[in-house]
Design goal:
Length: 323
């Protein structure tokens, strides 16, 4: 009888024991990689404390698809980073045979070739050149439709640069008096002190999440948005970007290849780009900072620190799996 009782207890234990989790049947997580990811995320959180505003960071290995993000799904004003989408739409027209890089469009009344306007827009962030391209593209909605057509969500284009700047500095966002004047300051005073327009920062128009901006860069670089020749054109121009020397590129090793585009408004600093590692691997990175009163130097530092931390992570962290 004791032996029978023992067998019954053992048999019942097979049913009463907890079932293994689904993870138990999959690959064992790499603790070294998990630790590296945790350290990177802790660094991103630390960088965010350098501002009294809001920081969004998204990084993505373009080979494996591995993505890490801090406030990656928060909407931020794109400012001039939207010019990447404008250039993409223009080059899609070239792919379709409905545009030539040698045709001209007027900038401040002077006709300039499309290729020149693209160069001015992406390397110098020239607003008038960009708006000439927006008009040639068919307007902001046409650019927005192209972004949707390549599968990018949570990135919307509602304005050309002139109208975007008007909303950034003046009332009309529909979020109350603070959109006109925070702390009793006029738009001109706010500009002089580099203070944010909180109403504009809360307006969903002309915004993107950091993840969505990486989606746009990935679609372009991986050939999902443009033909190989036009992909090479946009990336080569972005590699010649003259703005943002103290942002993403500032702390990278000398000679690091980076194709990027900056954006700047009162209390707001952005940079988004594709960085090439020494072994040829690529990662996309977007850093947005908004509602910041600390000033441009601190915003630039956050972008630079985030880029270097991501660079070291992707270069040294082990054992990634293809997405």
């Amino acid at each position: 009888m004791p032996r029978l009782r023992t067998k019954l207890i053992a048999f019942a234990g097979l049913f009463l024991a907890p079932l293994p989790t689904a993870d138990a049947f999959g690959p064992t997580p790499n603790p070294v990689l998990q630790n590296a990811q945790s350290r990177l995320m802790a660094e991103f959180a630390r960088f965010a404390t350098l501002t009294d505003g809001t920081v969004g960071i998204a990084v993505r290995d373009l080979g494996t698809g591995e993505t890490l993000a801090y406030n990656g799904d928060t909407l931020f004003p794109m400012a001039s980073t939207y010019k990447v989408a404008v250039a993409g739409k223009i080059l899609s027209l070239l792919d379709a045979g409905s545009l030539s890089l040698d045709e001209t469009a007027p900038r401040l009344g002077r006709p300039l070739p499309i290729r020149t306007l693209l160069e001015m827009s992406l390397t110098q962030s020239d607003n008038e050149a960009t708006d000439a391209l927006v008009a040639r593209a068919g307007g902001p909605q046409a650019v927005n439709d192209w972004v949707r057509s390549i599968g990018v969500r949570n990135l919307r284009i509602d304005s050309n640069t002139r109208d975007l700047l008007a909303r950034a500095k003046i009332a009309g966002t529909g979020f109350g008096d603070e959109a006109v004047m925070e702390s009793g300051l006029s738009a001109a005073q706010r500009t002089a002190r580099d203070m944010p327009n909180i109403g504009f920062a809360q307006d969903p128009r002309d915004t993107a999440t950091p993840r969505a901006m990486d989606d746009l860069l990935a679609a372009i670089r991986l050939g999902k948005a443009l033909k190989p020749q036009t992909t090479a054109i946009i990336l080569s121009i972005m590699e010649r970007c003259k703005t943002g020397k103290d942002r993403l590129r500032a702390m990278l090793p000398p000679g690091t290849r980076i194709a990027h585009k900056t954006g700047t408004l009162n209390g707001l600093g952005n940079d988004t780009g594709i960085i090439t590692l020494p072994d040829g691997r690529l990662f996309a990175i977007t850093v947005f900072v908004m509602k910041d009163y600390k000033g441009r130097i601190m915003r630039d530092r956050i972008m630079a620190e985030a880029a270097r931390a991501a660079y070291d992570y992707f270069l040294f962290a082990p054992d990634r799996h293809t997405a």
